[in-house]
Amino acid sequence: GRNSKSCCLRWCQHLDPRVEAVKPFTIEEDMLIVKYQATYGNR
User: Fold this and answer.
1) Most exposed residue of 10, 23, 29, 36, measured as fewest CB within 10 angstroms of its CB?
2) In this protein, which residues make up the domain named HTH myb-type (predicted)?
3) Using CA atoms, how far apart are residues 31 and 5, in angstroms rounded to an integer?
4) pLDDT tens string 8-43
């Protein structure tokens, strides 16, 4: 019952085995997130 766009999004966000959704951010990634959020805000 899904259309092609819905199927693609579901695969890319949930089903692709290369996606590691459980892995926590590294310290470097955390620092980048804080840096870019300070620069660009919540856009």
Assistant:
1) 23
2) 1-19
3) 33
4) 888 777 787 777 767 788 999 999 999 999 999 987
Nearest to 13 by CA among 32, 5, 26: 5
At 38 the pLDDT is 95
Distance in angstroms (rounded) separating the CA atoms of residues 13 and 4 = 14
Q: How many residues does the chain have?
A: 43
> pTM (2 decimals)?
0.47
